[in-house]
Specification:
Shape: elongated
Distance between the termini: 45 Å
CATH class: Mainly Alpha
Structural class: mainly alpha
Helix content: over 70%
Strand content: under 5%
Oligomer: single chain
CATH architecture: Orthogonal Bundle
Length: about 180
């Protein structure tokens, strides 16, 4: 609950303009009692960013273990990204935008996790090309396009629109997959 409230605050105000006092007010608790659970605003940001990074890495690990073709693995990755954007929007938004506010040592670790994730995704696309399941594309650009397209969900007003989530997920996934197949 603390992390979700913090993510919502960081998304709406930005990390720099947020304070523990405002977070405590939004949660309906006194600031000192919040400090009994969390040491600092920076600790909250770090936990949000690393939780999200680890969610994506854990999903990638599961996808890599699937006994399926690379196209199906890519589809599973895209579907997970959409799920996270639709169901954990504030946290994903903060991890995508506010990571720059992490303390240097943590920022480096966080960027290394992102790089690791992207490299594993690139590897799946490269395998698909090698197996002839996917057309010859630049795997790095393909990953960039896929991740950027899914992040584009930020531009939908997710809170105000009633979305047909299964249809939205299928439509986005189909468009992105079609760009990779023969």
């Amino acid at each position: 609950m603390i992390y979700h409230a913090a993510a919502t605050l960081f998304r709406t105000r930005g990390f720099s303009a947020s304070s523990m006092r405002v977070l405590a007010e939004k949660m309906g608790v006194e600031a000192p009692s919040l400090y009994n659970h969390i040491g600092s605003k920076s600790e909250l940001l770090r936990n949000i960013c690393f939780r999200i990074a680890n969610e994506f890495l854990n999903n990638m690990k599961q996808v890599q273990q699937l006994k399926s073709d690379e196209r199906s693995k890519i589809e599973a990755i895209i579907r997970f990204h959409i799920f996270m954007m639709l169901n954990h929007y504030d946290e994903v938004y903060v991890a995508n935008h506010e990571w720059r506010q992490l303390e240097d040592i943590y920022r480096t670790d966080f960027l290394n996790l992102r790089k690791q994730y992207e490299q594993q995704f690139i590897q799946i696309i490269s395998q698909g090309i090698k197996k002839g399941e996917l057309k010859k594309v630049n795997p790095s650009i393909a990953v960039l396009v896929i991740l950027s397209a899914v992040r584009g969900l930020e531009f939908l007003n997710l809170k105000k629109k009633q979305l047909d989530t299964p249809n939205l997920t299928t439509e986005i996934t189909d468009h992105l997959i079609k760009g990779l197949i023969q």
